[in-house]
Write a structure and sequence with these properties.
- It is a single chain.
- The chain is α+β, with helices and mostly antiparallel strands.
- It folds into two domains: 129 residues, no CATH class; 155 residues.
- The chain is built from eleven helices and ten strands.
- Strands 1, 2, 4, 5, 6, 7, 8 and 9 form an eight-stranded antiparallel beta sheet that branches. Strands 3-10 form a two-stranded antiparallel sheet.
- Strand 1 and strand 2 form a beta hairpin.
- Helix 3 crosses helix 9, helix 8 packs antiparallel against helix 11 and helix 9 packs antiparallel against helix 10.
- The radius of gyration is 22 Å and the shape is globular.
- 44% of the residues are buried.
- The N terminus is likely disordered.
Length: 362
């Protein structure tokens, strides 16, 4: 921001007093512009935890579990495939923001005959304008790999963005080159690369959204496939819900020589976090809907047990330090048994969700 004299310094001082959004705006050109107090990720999830962080900076108080529940990512089980957590059939962040009543501007990956470097440079300037206005922006593949991240600042001297990601910027803002998004080569959900969040102009209907989220949970659990990736009706979607769990367990049981790859490890690292949020979301709803408190509370317990089983698979078998790099029939059988256990709790949790739904939305 250029130094245009004492009056601008006075206005900035007044803004710091009156504006509820804490920010750093240095009047000297070229200095870093950084929004202070932008929260870190509380759920290891690539698509919608960014929405909570951005809305939290606006003063909204939704919990991480509530956002995951309303978006459907708390209940989503797709794959196994390395792209499953970002390409399942739960909401994408632009739709979720609109649901909460916010105006959204989407920036898309350029057409094939367009210079992507030039287009990304334009997006970078748009995102920086948002930061100057005191608004964090959501951008693809900035600090993490092929996930949605929150941009909270920039330093033009170092040519970097500053902000948060699901596994980056947890102890302090992460830093990455401003043009890093150009390296994703268009591998992004539906071609969407950046989301600029405008004013809140609509009303959020919590009851309608909560019932819709629970109906999605039931529908997804019983689905054979998620929506086709990229929206192409000629392609099959990923395995969804119970079908995904059954295939996952069976893949290790029928092939004792199988070694987990990124298509197993990455989704598991996400689902063990999001499905724990499912239990916390159900407890929030149990407190809101007394007539369904008992089945919703039971569902919360089942999803917590499911997440415990997924944690056990992760820590004992699939985390990088677990050492499963070569065929090991004993570990394959352990993985299959633990996936079976997680599936039983997931299925029971969904049945309890159905029972609760019958009481609040017959």
């Amino acid at each position: 921001m250029a130094n245009t004299g004492p009056m601008n310094r006075f206005l900035l001082a007044q803004l710091a007093v009156c504006c509820p959004i804490p920010l750093t705006l240095d009047a000297a050109g070229g200095d870093p512009v950084v929004l202070q107090g932008v929260d870190r990720y509380r759920v290891l999830e690539p698509c919608n935890e960014c929405v909570r962080i951005v809305l939290g900076h606006r003063g909204e108080t939704y919990s991480p579990a509530y956002i995951q529940g309303i978006a459907g990512t708390a209940f989503q089980l797709a794959g196994p495939c390395v792209c499953a957590p970002t390409c399942g059939d739960a909401m994408q962040p632009d739709k979720l923001l609109r649901l909460f009543g916010y105006e959204v501007e989407c920036l898309w990956w350029p057409a094939k005959d367009t210079d992507s470097q030039t287009e990304v440079a334009k997006w970078v300037e748009r995102v920086k304008a948002e930061i100057r206005a005191g608004r964090p922006a959501i951008m693809w593949h900035v600090f993490t790999n092929y996930e949605w991240d929150v941009v909270a600042g920039f330093d033009d001297e170092k040519h970097v963005f500053l902000g948060r990601g699901s596994y980056a910027g947890l102890d302090g803002y992460a830093s990455a080159d401003q043009m890093r998004a150009a390296t994703c080569d268009g591998v992004c959900p539906l071609g969407l690369v950046a989301i600029l969040v405008g004013e809140k102009t609509g009303e959020y209907d919590p009851r309608a959204a909560e019932i819709a989220a629970l109906r999605y949970a039931v529908r997804h659990a019983h689905s054979e496939r998620t929506r086709p990736m990229g929206g192409d009706p000629g392609k099959q979607g990923l395995r969804g819900g119970m079908n995904c769990y059954q295939w996952w367990a069976q893949s290790f049981r029928t092939d004792p020589a199988k070694v987990p790859d990124g298509g197993d490890r990455y989704p598991l690292s996400i689902y063990r976090s999001t499905h724990r949020a499912a239990g916390e979301f159900m407890l929030e709803l149990a407190a809101k809907y007394p007539e369904a408190a008992r089945p919703f509370t039971r569902a919360a317990g089942q999803f917590a047990h499911e997440a415990d089983a997924l944690d056990e698979i992760w820590v004992r078998l699939m985390e990088r330090g677990a050492g499963w790099q070569d065929p090991d029939p004993a570990k394959s059988e352990q993985a299959a048994a633990l996936f079976d256990r997680a599936a039983r709790h997931y299925a029971q949790g969904i049945r309890d969700v159905e029972r609760g739904l019958a009481k609040i939305a017959p």
